[in-house]
Amino acid sequence: MTGMTSSARPILNRRLAEFGTTIFAEMSALAATTGSINLGQGFPDTDGPEEIREAAVRALRDGRGNQYPPGPGVPELRTAIAAHQQRRYGLTYDPDTEVLVTAGATEAIAASLLALVEPGDEVVALEPYYDSYAACVAMAGGRRVPVTLRPHDGAFRLDLDELRAAVTDRTRLLLINTPHNPTGTVLTREELSAIAELAVERDLLVVTDEVYEHLVFDDAVHVPLATLPGMRERTVTISSAGKTYSYTGWKVGWVTAPPALVTAVRAAKQFLTYVSAGPFQYAVAEALNLPEDYFTALREDLRAKRDLLAAGLEKAGFAVFRPAGTYFITADIRPLGESDGFAFCRSLPERAGVVAIPNAVFYDHREEGAPFVRFAFCKRHQTLREAAERLAGLRHG
Q1: Helices 278-287 and 50-62, packing angle to 10 deg
Q2: Which of 52, 124, 193, 377 could cross-link to 309 by cystine, CB 3.0-4.6 Å?
Q3: Closest CA to 121 of 139, 141, 135
Q4: 133-166 burial string, b = 16+ CB within 10 Å, else e?
């Protein structure tokens, strides 16, 4: 169509006007064109357990899931999700009315916000936040209200007074992420209890993104918000298989919540993908029942990778925030004489042959995130060692 861009009205919906190509796509493309090691986007460079891949192949060959699966998800997976929540956390959910399978956690977040947020509602989210949060709040017509996690004693911490002050009569929902991407913070039971008390006091809904629930290190413990007093009935808990089982391309996520909330989220979800990942759902059902030693080995492997990359970053001159969870490390570039994370990340492939992500993309208050960059350590040990060697030249270059 000619003359389309000359219209007084922009082509792109104004709610999405501030969102262009994601930083992940930009930096991954930069990694490809420069031959750099991609520690930007959070995907492993090896596949997960062979028996889970074979379970997917078996489902394909047996004709399970090759046609539309049930809208809420295949019964085997919903049952396995409910059993996981009961076994891990003592949370009891009905697989038929309180579990919903989604196209990854990203769709679960989108469907939850589209279902629960009216235009003008305020959504309080912890900043920095995964970039889809802001886009989903905007698509729902809501207004995001960031509460900033700030560096303190080597970690990023939540100011509970600031959180309370952010809640107004227009607040509809708290959007919580723990273990937290990109900072690696794992909110403590005390912090989560304060969040729970605030939600109950102000009668707020809570959407909690717990996709890194199994990726916690050292003495950190993941506490689901829904386990705290007064929270099960107001909390939409979201998780997924991608991070835990290293099959990020399968895009199998889920929601657990009371029937009224699941029904609301499903009302939006059914008009997004409707259904997805049929054969993979059967494989993930088997994955959720892997023995405990799988999860222990996963954590130990990632902890060793975290320590390997953290040591390399420190040797290169970064100030490093060693994460208690997730598979990301946030580093401060100011000891290197830098202060602009965007400029640093865009020049890093040429300077060192490594790609990272500027944390400022995860902030409304860009200045708060300006000196921080994020590296993913969900890669092979050999890849991380090579990245550390490449980065070592920064201190002298």
Answers
A1: 140
A2: 377
A3: 141
A4: bbbbbbbbebbbbbbbbebeeebbbbebeebeeb
- 200: number of Cβ within 10 Å: 16
In the chain, the amino acid numbered 287 is A
Give me the DSSP letters along 220-264: -----GGGSTTTGGGEEEEEESHHHHT-GGG--EEEE--HHHHHH
Amino acid at site 151: P
Pairing state between β 37-38 and 253-256: unpaired
- Residue entry with tokens 């953290």: 310
- Dump pLDDT digits (tens) for 268-312: 999 999 999 999 999 999 999 999 999 999 999 999 999 999 999
How does pLDDT run across 60-108, given as a tens digit for each residue?
A: 999 999 999 999 999 999 999 999 999 999 999 999 999 999 999 999 9
Helices (H) and strands (E) in the chain, counts: 14, 15
Cβ contact 78:95 at 8 Å: yes
Distance (Å, whole) CA 290 – CA 306: 24
Query: Residue 149: CB partners within 8 Å, gap ≥ 6?
Result: 126, 127, 128, 156, 157, 158, 180, 183, 185
